[in-house]
Design brief:
By secondary structure, this protein is α+β, with helices and mostly antiparallel strands. It contains eleven helices and 22 strands. α2 packs parallel to α3. The termini are far apart.
């Protein structure tokens, strides 16, 4: 019997940032009404959600009160209260990704132990409780110290090359990861539905900002050998299978100069390394996330057009009401598509939007990336 397609479904999203905003755009295509819980009264989702609730996704009571009248709850950021989500699950609510998966991924220490347990290749590491522990591992240097909790977009990560730098390290539960002499950083977006069906997106290559420690731009597909590509596919699929996640998972990896592929980190949600899929793939990562959590047939992840994605970041030295320079020049570039996130205020390094560029010629694609990077600026 045919039924109205999901127009009566009550979907809640914890977090009201740009990922939620783009997820809402896919929800509209599926007749899905959305409720958003976010602590920022001017969040990017506020004007687009069917219902916006002002509250803290990390607060137990706020999450319980938000979710108790919903059918399905998902996330656009993993910094959420997993105890509340587990309670909602016991109350009969669908929660995807599952609370136990979110909880594991929230702590980078747990993540690394999970990889080790399941034979998933990752950089060598040791666990630390405080700075005194850090001082005991001078022989492990050079390394990268990562906070167990709360690190995001380059925050909570500190490179320690010499013993003199140890004093600047974190005095908190963390891990010390062997510094990898990598050739490339790549990412693979994957999705799994309740039925256990899995799709794996083509590998993308990430280029990081030299100072900000976050992605400046990427291109898809990555310029890697078939052998490396297959390793990346196999590893990403294994991570998804072992987690048994329902929803989207971004798997970030290093490709070493000796041809190894090592998992760096994962994110259980739509991800910055999948934004280009809106224009460049047959199924965007946002639509795919909906398909997965609704247990619908998963869409084709195949690339329709070669692409690049440039993050629009707030300029150093500017904080205040955002002013965008260079928009008109970018709009003159063939194959360039602007996606702004609705953030009224800018500050250094803040993600304010992204631009997807499509071009059949790779050299021309990179030239357009360079031109866009030199043209668009967010000041105040």
């Amino acid at each position: 019997m045919n039924k109205p397609f999901y127009q009566d479904l009550k979907l809640g999203i914890l977090g009201g940032g740009q990922l939620g905003r783009m997820l809402i755009q896919s929800c509209v295509d599926f007749n899905i009404n959305t409720s958003i819980l976010d602590a920022d009264p001017s969040s990017p989702c506020k004007e687009f959600a069917s219902e916006f609730i002002l509250g803290d996704p990390t607060n137990y009571d706020d999450v319980i009160n938000f979710g108790k009248n919903l059918d399905l709850i998902t996330i656009e950021v993993e910094n959420v209260n997993t105890e509340a989500l587990s309670k909602l699950q016991k109350m009969g609510k669908k929660v995807f990704p599952q609370p136990e998966v979110i909880k594991l991924i929230q702590d980078k220490r747990s993540q690394k132990q999970f990889y080790k347990k399941h034979g998933i290749p990752t950089a060598e590491f040791v666990l630390l409780e405080n700075k005194e522990d850090l001082k005991k591992h001078i022989n492990f240097l050079p390394a990268v110290q990562k906070l167990g909790m709360a690190g995001y977009d380059g925050r909570g990560v500190f490179k320690i090359a010499t013993k003199e730098a140890i004093e600047k390290g974190f005095d908190a539960p963390s891990l010390l990861e062997k510094l990898i002499d990598f050739e490339k950083e790549i990412s693979v977006i994957t999705a799994r539905n309740e039925s256990g069906d899995i799709v794996v997106y083509p590998v993308v290559e990430l280029v990081f900002h030299p100072e900000y420690n976050l992605v400046e731009y990427l291109f898809a597909p990555a310029k890697i050998s078939k052998e490396i590509e297959q390793k990346a596919f196999d590893i990403a699929r294994k991570v998804v299978e072992k987690l048994e996640i329902v929803g989207l998972l971004a798997v970030e990896m290093f490709v070493t100069k000796t041809g190894e592929v090592l998992v760096n980190e994962v994110a259980p949600r739509p991800h910055n390394s999948g934004h280009q899929t809106i224009k460049a793939n047959y199924t965007s990562q946002f639509e795919q996330h909906l398909r997965a959590i609704l247990n619908l047939p998963l869409g084709s992840p195949a690339i329709a057009k070669q692409s690049a994605m440039v993050n629009i970041l707030g300029e150093e030295g500017y904080s205040g009401i955002a002013i965008y320079e260079g928009i008109e020049e970018v709009l003159r570039i063939e194959g360039a598509y602007i996606h702004l996130y609705g953030k009224k205020f800018t500050k250094p390094k803040r993600k304010m939007g992204h631009i997807t560029i499509i071009d059949d010629n790779f050299e021309q694609l990179l030239q357009k990336v360079e031109k866009i990077n030199a043209t668009i600026k967010v000041i105040a």
